[in-house]
Amino acid sequence: MNTSLGFSLARAFIQMNLMCYKWDMTLMDSQAQNQKPKSAASDGARLTRDNWLDEAFQAVVVGGFENVKVLALAEKLKVTRGSFYWHFTDHADLIGSLLMRWKLAQLELDEKLKSHRSEDPIQDLEFVVDAAFNQAGTELENLRFEQALRALSHLHNGAAQMLVEVDAERINLFESKFLVILKDPAKARDLAALLYLAIVGGYQALSRPVNPPNIRAYVQGLISNYLVLKQVT
Questions:
Q1: In sequence order, what are the residues at sequence separation of 6 or more whose Cβ sits closer than 8 angstroms to the Cβ of residue 136?
Q2: Which residues contact 58 (CB under 8 A, 6 or more apart)?
Q3: What would the pLDDT profile of 106-159 be if each residue is shown by its tens digit?
Q4: What is the pTM of this model?
Q5: Exposed (0-12), middle (13-18) or buried (19+): which is 154, by Cβ within 10 Å?
Q6: Are the beta carbons of 77 and 51 closer than 8 angstroms?
Q7: Hey, how many other C-beta atoms are within 10 angstroms of the C-beta on 86?
Q8: Using one digit for the tens of pLDDT, what is the confidence trace for 113-127?
Q9: What CA–CA distance (Å, rounded) separates 137 from 163?
Q10: Cβ distance 139 to 206 under 8 Å?
Q11: Which of the 8 DSSP states describes residue 226?
């Protein structure tokens, strides 16, 4: 065989192998890049924003806002941490969204209770008091979340402002019910504030680790008797 021809064939063979190697490596890189987002997309698509917020809510109930950690939430939800970023930009966005969801739910409830009217205005006021205690939750989960939120408000201006708004709307709700009965704006306003403070204090009593049996019914009965019935009848 001609020597130059042999060298040419060998060089062509080596170049062909190099081209094949580069093509294989490019294909592997492309597959790896395609597979990684696909996994994150699968996680992100499987969960909704509310799934993350629900899990964050439970974390607050158990251990306060400092207990809300993205990695721990991802483990609870059985997804990768990366899927979190399909719904939130960062941890602060998650907390802000959780607070806003709580605020909107509270204002919506207050509006429904304000529009609830029957032929008996005293019964309407009792209905609102009952709703306030039921709002604590069957396992006091809403109560514990709100207590954690009040603790957070000392460090978080956004949380503090939300509480100011929600507290004002709740007092306004009580005031509107008292006003229908008493026809006295000043007295209705004062009793509304007093009633709200009593309910918030009742929440503190309910949140103790150990309580006597039927404590909720007892506290609610005291408030209804002395701050509602004795004031309007």
A1: 142, 143, 203, 206, 216
A2: 141
A3: 999 999 999 999 999 999 999 999 999 998 988 899 999 999 999 999 999 999
A4: 0.78
A5: exposed
A6: yes
A7: 16
A8: 999 999 999 999 999
A9: 19
A10: no
A11: I
pLDDT digits (tens, 9 = 90+) for 25-45: 444 444 444 444 444 445 555
Q: Which token pair is 60?
A: 């607050």
Residue type, 213: P
What does residue 204 show for φ and ψ, rounded to 5 degrees? -60, -40
The full DSSP string for the chain is --HHHHHHHHHHHHHHHHHHHHHHHHHHHHHHHHHHHHHHHHHHHHS-HHHHHHHHHHHHHHH-GGG--HHHHHHHHTS-GGGGGGT-SSHHHHHHHHHHHHHHHHHHHHHHHHH---S-HHHHHHHHHHHHHHTT-TTSHHHHHHHHHHHHTTT-HHHHHHHHHHHHHHHHHHHHHHHHHH--HHHHHHHHHHHHHHHHHHHHHHTSSS--TTHHHHHHHHHHIIIIIHHH-
CB 125 within 8 A of CB 181: yes
Contacts (Cβ under 8 Å, ≥6 apart) of 160: 153, 154
What six digits make up the tokens of 230? 């004795």
The yes-or-no verdict on residue 1 having pLDDT over 60 is no
pLDDT digits (tens, 9 = 90+) for 72-119: 999 999 999 999 999 999 999 999 999 999 999 999 999 999 999 999
Q: CA–CA separation, 110 vs 131, rounded Å?
A: 10
